[in-house]
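[job 0412] stage=fold_complex status=start
inputs:
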Amino acid sequence: MEKVNLAQKLSLFNDYYNPRIVGELNNQHVKLVKLKGEFVWHSHEVEDELFLVIKGTLRMELRDKTIHINEGEFLVVPRGVEHKPVADEETHILLFEPATTLNTGDVENELTRKQLEKL
Amino acid sequence: MEKVNLAQKLSLFNDYYNPRIVGELNNQHVKLVKLKGEFVWHSHEVEDELFLVIKGTLRMELRDKTIHINEGEFLVVPRGVEHKPVADEETHILLFEPATTLNTGDVENELTRKQLEKL
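[job 0412] stage=fold_complex status=done
writing structure:
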């Protein structure tokens, strides 16, 4: 059993939209991801997804509104809800979601990451 | 769907070892709790528990060692592992754990909180 330091783990990678697994519990994963620019519209059929902003601002576009999530804030996107993460500046996010969650949900394209690195 | 600001939620209560629910997803709860002083030795039979330190230092006593968890760090305590949280100064924690988790686990005493407030 070892503690995890978020800043130390974040220092280990620099690419965007490529989540790393930094914790596992109750069949859920704790992931860290760096964002910059636009992701893709997608939804997750059976997984609710938590986005906690560690640094920067995450602009979560939904079909009916946009939510700006700042450092120290989180948003839960329920299963089935279409969303598109956007970050104008580099933004660091902690994700909490079931181990089954695929980053692009119901969409598969060049951004899809099937095998995530564990840090 | 609304974002949650951790500092704003933490400003709504001042008692210790009384977790509040601030988010729900995938049958898991996101809780906030303020600690000061010693909690009790306990374990959770079927729940792994994540402690993310928002402010202060959490001293997690285990039977074979003690782990100091500082701001920006988290620890996962697996099910079945006895632990005793201690905070010398006021410390703020984000908990992530199954909705079934009782704060004192297998122990029931005056610190047990069966009905948690949702903020």
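[job 0412] summary: The CA atoms of residues 45 and 80 of chain A lie 5 Å apart.
[job 0412] exit 0
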